[in-house]
Predict the 3D structure of the following.
Amino acid sequence: MTKNRPARSGGAFATFGLSKNVLRAVVEAGFVEPRPIQAKTIPEAMRGRDVLGLAQTGTGKTAAFALPILERLLAGKGGGPRALILAPTRELAMQTHAEIEVLAKYTNVRSMTVFGGVSAAAQVRGLKKRPDIVVACPGRLLDLMGSGDAWMGGVEVLVLDEGDHMLDMGFLPDIKRILAQLPKERQNMLFSATMPREIRGLADRLLRNPHVVELDHSKPADTIDHALYPVEHKDKTALLQHLLRGEDFSSAIVFLRTKHRARRLAQELDKAGHRAVALQGNMSQGQRQRAMQGFRDGRYDVLVATDIAARGIDVADVSHVINFDMPNVADAYTHRIGRTGRSEKSGKACTFVTSDDFAMVKEIEKKIQMSIPRVKLRDVPAGNGTDFSRGRRGGGQYGSGGGGGGSYRPGKKSGGGGSYRPAKNGGGGPRKRASWGSSSSSNGGGAGGSGGKSGSGGGGGGSSSSQRAAGRSFGSGLSFGKRATRGRGRRG
């Protein structure tokens, strides 16, 4: 039996009425003040209400449902499992389980994980011991329920963690089959970073008179600096290596669309002297765990990952998230960059943008309700045959004509810079191309091109003192045409 040692004050967490042993673990874990999602959901969840909690990644959603679950389990008895937490990825399931173990450290509450990619034998043995909490991925859990090895008839609390991603990944049929085998009288909680309209409909059917908390869930955390880097496909690796050599770099997660490209890029970075490792779907569970643990321990400082890993990465002090490839959907941008700027620490989100990505940039900026600053690449030194510093009138081949960094507004006549496509005379660019320039060209140098209706002539990228003063370093000597914004950018 665990000894009930007196807990320290516990700060504001003590006001939730947590039991001594739970509060003691909370204090020992370093929790001081509840995060907004915790402060607004824990009291209602402890009263037994269904909860819909929408907040950015890295804001403490796990503790928001784990603490009420622990208190409920400690208050009564029953045959386990009494709480079921469904997660979309193995990494997220393991991290949720690890955090529950920390918070349940001084109690007798037992938790276990159930997911694929490993032998089911150990999981079957664990389930026979009737753990209090099961953290599971839907596929393996459904298999074990079908074989009679996982009995969920005693579940009192159901949590869908990162519910939108779970449904986006095609788990909806599995989830419905699992729900059909759970007791109808139970508490339901759904926590997620985003909630698309179609997912909200399912939440409305699942949750009964829920307590709803929405904390700017479509906007990234204010602790993140954002930047777009217009670059050609062939120059992405050179630009990436430049960023990794920056003085402000400590560790990075680099996102690509496909597992094959992620593996190749990790190998290329490793050959170039970077401590890089890939995390992608073709790896065994043991390989994935070793890669993640190596990144956490600092043996690797670059993790090259696909989107499937985005929801399962919770590593402290990641300085950069680099979108080597633009995400396929706007919501994925929020989830990717949520790997940095966590726990109110600062971080940087760098996105490489080609001429094919304009439409997605517009969607992302609409989704996060801010304009992302554009970076001029003329200051990036040459590397791997790429000379980012070469320039022509209008700010160079990759730069915009005038004081870049304005919002993405195709069709505006006031854009200071030219289009992303290389323009012989700086300034404008083709009519059907969107301008990357700023909204003002009064401090620019020489005249830019006319650019037609959709990209204005703007300033020619001159060197007036006011234009230089407007620039701001974003690591590695790269400068914005406008001052970079942290978190909330200029409204688009």
About this structure: The first helix runs from residue 20 to 28.
